[in-house]
Amino acid sequence: MKFPLILAAALAFTAQAQAQTAPAPRAAADQIATKKGPLTVQPITHGSVVFTWNGKTIYVDPYGGAAAYAGLAAPDVILITDIHGDHLDPKTLAGLSVGKALMVVPQAVADKLPAEYKAQVRVLGNGQKLDTLGMTVSAIPMYNLPEAPDAPHTKGRGNGYVLNLGGKNVYLSGDTEDIAEMRALKGIDVAFVCMNLPYTMDVQQAAQGVLAFKPGIVYPYHYRGQNGLSDVASFKKTVNQADKKIDVRLRNWYPAAQ
After folding, report:
1. Which among 35, 53, 103, 115 would be 20 to 30 A from 83, CA to CA?
2. Coil/strand/helix, residue 139
3. Which among 242, 237, 188, 252 has a CA at the least distance from the CA of 211?
4. How far apart are CA 12 and CA 165, in angstroms?
5. Is 35 exposed, middle or buried (0-12, 13-18, 19+ CB in 10 A)?
6. Where are the strands (E) in 55-199, listed by range?
7. Pick from 91, 79, 95: nearest CA to 47
8. Strand partners, 220
9. What is the DSSP string of 47-93?
C-alpha cells in the first residue's frame, strides 16, 4: 500500500512545483507592422511591456516577478524609467536572464542599480538619444504638475522614451502628467500612456494629452492607483468622441488580479 501513497505524494509535489513555476497569466500579444518586420507588443503588468522586433527583445520597466516573463526571450535592451519600485525592481531583475542586456536608464536609476549591472548601463538624460541594435532610443521628460521639489516625480529625474523601430515611433510615457513635452510630440505611431492617481494623470488629463499629440495607436497602461484601476473605457470614449482616427487599445494589464 506504500506505493500508491508514494505515487500520490509525488504527483502532488509535481503539481505544486508546476503551479509555482507556471507562467503568470498575461494579455495576448499584438503585432504592428514596421519597415523591418513586425513589432510584437506583449503587455506584462502595470508599466511593464515587452517588445520583440527585428530579432531583438526589449523589456520596459521589468516588474512583478520573473514568472511574469516566463517563455519570453531574454532581453537585448532593458529600459527603466524611474527609481520607484514598480519601475526599478531589483528582485525581478535578479530572476531574469539579463546578462546580455544593455540597460538604458536615467542617472537616478543608475545610482540605485545593484553593482553587478554597472558594466551594462548606458545613462541617458532628458533630451539625449542613443542608436543601438538598429533602433533609436530618445529620452524625454516625465514629471508631475505643478512642479515642486516634493512631487512624486520631479523634472529631470526620470525618463519617458521614444523608440524608433523600423520607421515606427513608439512613446512610453513613464510616470508623468500631461506636460508640454508630451503634448508637443510629433509623428508618434504607438503610445503607452499612464493614468493613475495620485501619482500621474487622471483619465481626463490623459485623454486631453493624447488628443494634443494624436498618436496612431494608444495603449492605456500603468492605470492602477490608490483607489483601484482607472476607468480606461471612459478614456477610450473621451478620446474617440473627439478623434475617431486614434486607435485606443484596451488590454488587461492586471490579469493576475482578475
Report:
1. 53
2. strand
3. 242
4. 46
5. exposed
6. 56-60, 77-79, 102-105, 121-123, 129-132, 135-140, 160-165, 168-172, 190-194
7. 79
8. 193
9. TEEEEEETTEEEEES--S-GGGGTTSPPPSEEE---SSTTTS-HHHH
Those residues whose C-beta lies under 8 Å from the C-beta of residue 174, and which sit 6 or more positions away, are: 47, 61, 81, 82, 87, 142, 158, 159, 160, 161, 194
Q: Which three cell numbers stand for residue 246?
A: 486614434
Look up residue 193 and give its DSSP letter: E
The verdict on pTM exceeding 0.85 is: yes
The whole-angstrom separation of Cα 111 and Cα 118 is: 9
**Nearest of 66, 43, 79 to residue 165 by alpha carbon:** 79
Set of cell numbers at residue 160: 519617458
Query: How many residues are there in the chain?
Result: 258
